[in-house]
């Protein structure tokens, strides 16, 4: 089942990425989702994440992580495994796999990468993120790094298509508050850059190819 799912997604990728039209669906109204070239952001930090699919009850699921609470803008948020590109990384795909290994404690040598989504710039943290897609044909046992991961959440892909899984939440920060669209899964609220990437994934999976 997971291989067939991956093949369908890969086929959809061949028709191009929607980018901004898909991103805007799950972006806060105050956020500009128009694409920004990395060359125009010379001071931006570069990072890569992996959207990892694994089987759950014989159906595809997405691996998410809950970040520990900390003072940074992404503290306590839901995200994909990933992190900053290091000079020693051979390429950006390698970064996504390396960070997944470090954060989740899994063997990434069996992960089949099938492409990537549109790059996403995150203004609050000044990160330019490259999102990669990959899958494992089995459900791995996770050994998360407690410094980086509070919990690992395996969310069925079908949640993306359930109207009841979409809501809004109030984000409050010093000197600012705003409403943000979010995906809802169990007690978790997925918003911001992670929701924007999931929105593009949802678009790709509902495309008729």
TL;DR?
The protein is of the alpha+beta class. Helix content is 21%, strand content 33%.
Tell me about this structure.
The protein has 209 residues and is of the alpha+beta class. The chain has a single domain, classed as Alpha-Beta Complex (Nucleoside Triphosphate Pyrophosphohydrolase), CATH 3.90.79. The strands form two sheets. Strands 1, 2, 3, 4, 5, 6, 7 and 8 form an eight-stranded mixed sheet that branches. Strands 9-10-11 form a three-stranded antiparallel sheet. β6 and β7 form a beta hairpin. The longest helix has 15 residues. The radius of gyration is 16 Å and the shape is globular. The two termini are 18 Å apart.
Radius of gyration from the CA trace? Answer: 16 Å
Name of the level-1 CATH class: Alpha Beta
Q: What is the string of SSEs from the N terminus onward? A: HHEEEEHEEEEEEEH
Q: Which topology does CATH recognise?
A: Nucleoside Triphosphate Pyrophosphohydrolase
User: How widely separated are the two ends?
Assistant: 18 Å
Total strand segments: 11
CATH superfamily: Nucleoside Triphosphate Pyrophosphohydrolase
Q: What level of helicity do the residues show? A: 10-25%
Main pleated-sheet profile: 8 strands, mixed
Structural class of the helices, strands and pairings?
A: alpha+beta
Residue windows where pLDDT falls under 50 for at least 5 positions: none
